[in-house]
## 1
Amino acid sequence: MKVTSCMNIDSEFLYSYGAEDRHYKTGEIIYREGDHAVYYYQIVQGKIKQNNYDAEGREFIHNILRENQSFGESMIFLEDLHMMNAICLTPVDIIRLHKDSFLQLLEENPKISLQMNACLSQRLYFKSIMLQNMSSPNPALRLEGLLEYLKSYHDVNCNDSLHIELTRQQMANLTGLRVETVIRTLKKMETQSKIKIKNRKVYY
DNA sequence: TCATTAATCGAAG
DNA sequence: CTTCGATTAATGA
């Protein structure tokens, strides 16, 4: 099941609807949990994460998105508040379009609207897969689930092993495990040749 | 080189 | 599995 994993509207087209360029520095917050959702965001350059924190202050990362991917749209349709933070992992260039203009764009362009549906379905599909994997008490299975998710979500050529561009801390925050557990489990998985590790980099 | 951040390890709970 | 303490490697100013 290979679908275009994400929304990527032509930038000139976005500008014609009044979209604007925005630049953020590493660590900057694009929006916070509880903010009103007002924009559709499309990443031109850089990486962002969507997260929130539990009562003990532990971070849980919901997703990490990169160039040509969009975010913030789902809440636009709900007319509601963001349920997570969007924080820059690197310097980021973004195009943002006000929700009113975004909805107008969708109304006037059925094809893009359909693509939007496909994009949201895709996310829903993988969220459910992740939910299943992440509910396993076995850390190796959680990690494998994450890797499998990343592979299908990002990768285009699935033959070669994929370089996982995540720190161990990020993998831990994506799976709800501790860094040390991630490190030890990853090593175990390497001996079982489920993954490869070269210079601390993980390949799956 | 100093400081900061990420990756590791071992031991204990 | 998680927490703690401590060390080591990597990166940037």
Note: The two ends of chain A are 19 Å apart (CA to CA).
## 2
Amino acid sequence: MAKSSKSQFAILGMLAILKKSSGYDLKKHMESSTQYFWKETFSSIYPVLEDLEKQKLIVKVKKPTQNDRKRNIYKLTPEGHNTLKNWLIQPPEDMQLRNELLLKLFFGAIVPIEVSIEHLKKQKKELKNKLSTYQKIKNKLSENHSLESLYSLITLDHGIRHILTSIEWCDNAIKELKSAEQQTIK
Amino acid sequence: MAKSSKSQFAILGMLAILKKSSGYDLKKHMESSTQYFWKETFSSIYPVLEDLEKQKLIVKVKKPTQNDRKRNIYKLTPEGHNTLKNWLIQPPEDMQLRNELLLKLFFGAIVPIEVSIEHLKKQKKELKNKLSTYQKIKNKLSENHSLESLYSLITLDHGIRHILTSIEWCDNAIKELKSAEQQTIK
DNA sequence: AAGATCATGTAAATCGTTACATGATTGT
DNA sequence: ACAATCATGTAACGATTTACATGATCTT
């Protein structure tokens, strides 16, 4: 029934950073921070929280104020902290990735060149939008000088650098394809 | 029973490029071409091939020579070609990615800074190995001047650019963390 | 009063990976 | 003969996404 492995640690980690949180807030927080490299859905969060509680890695916090919404707020137990730390020191695994754009480009010779060019243009537009979002987040984060925000900045910087690289790659790929197109017409 | 969606098209596409192939060769081919952004296992390939055959998108090829190994060789049917083309012209979806290294770095403040630095150093080493492999493949591919190899080069170029960017990011992140380490010691 | 969003969950479908299983063929 | 690798598959498991379901609370 319960979910396991990676999702567990993501949720445990977020909970460690937020000190205490509900499943709902956990998700909202991930959306504005780890979304780019890690996301969870409610359908995984709630069962995982239940499971973590059963494992005594987290506990429900008694609400100090009574006029709070009916929601479950959790925090890590000392065992939860240890479990998280043990996971953090293990070398991360490279996770398999699938990139549909690249797959379609790889098969590009089967369809007209314009199809691939269009895919690339669309991708570039989306990347530019993402870039400006990330830049804004970076500006806000840069004001903060805690160690925690340094780690946020490092992961964000990964995103920005890769987006910039992707945009350059798109431009170059479009250029190459257009020149190939010219040659086949002649 | 059968596998579906993305895997189907990946296999259909590879089959289109190879003209005809066995499941085994399909896999070997992907290992030396699409591995970086798309891989399939035998456990998905064989059921998908069976399923594609049932859908009449591919057919078994009668072997011309008798001294061939006992293996099933498939090729696309006209319907298979159409199905593939229809998929290729649809805008690719951005697929969700999970990056465990980034997740662990994001939670970096929970463990000593050296832990994160070690993760980054290990990552950098792996990236350098990958880079030299990709460079070699690129050199070989560059000799060929077909349209098909242009598409291969474009996807490979994506890989190379992103690896270079990742290495730079690793270096920078390590630098930032070391400087933060100095400051916390003082 | 209505609509947005807060808040938590279940069930089913999908999907992919790992382990298991088997046997033929080729090269040394 | 033996090892490598060719070649095809099944079964079980693990994990995630989508759809479904419900109701409270806040805002206008």
Note: Residues 22-24, 42-43, 45-47, 50, 69-72, 96 of chain B lie near DNA strand D (CB under 10 Å from a C1').
